[in-house]
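Progress report, Aim 2. The chain analyzed during this reporting quarter is listed below.
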Amino acid sequence: MDLNHLDDYCIETTQSEPDLLIELVEKTYSDMGYPNKLSGKVIGRTLKLLATIKQPKRVLEIGMFTGYSALSIAEGMPSDGEIICCETNPRAIEFAQSFFDRSPHGHKIKPIFGPALETIQNLDGLFDFVFIDADKRNYLNYYQAVMPLVSKGGLIVIDNSLWQGRVLDPKENSDFAVNELNELIAKDSRVENVHLNVRDGLNLVVKH
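Predicted structure tokens for the chain:
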């Protein structure tokens, strides 16, 4: 059995994104570097579904890139919800904003330029939903920094938690960082989690 075919089957049998998101993906591949940073259809629809279930009023996204995941989450949020997105690439922010401006959910999204750890230090209030998908070397730092800002019952979603399988045999700083975070979460009494083998890994964490 070819497991890649099963991945394709899951993609094909997941309901499609809105046309604007499909256009965003195509434009990202044609106009931006590192388009593989996109979350992809299954992760995007998972984020939308989780937001639909959770109905978060405040969301923090660490690593926005061209806005695919932010728009996916916003789609499932209440109309008065807010997503604060941390991003260090000004061109990516400009690109994403052009799509936010065309989306009925774009008014919920507030990009902030700058290193996420610095942005987090200046944030007030609690968040119901956090999505971590930025530089892997800082994954553990992001988790520890956001934990005080996550509300009781709040959801933390960590993308690329399998890091292309490198967590099984870490060699580089990013490999060790992702693996260390996964191991910490499994023992963290502040939370409960389930680690899913979906695409490149998705670790779902709920704060007690």
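The mean pLDDT is 96. The longest helix spans residues 173-187. These observations will guide the mutagenesis work planned for the next reporting period.
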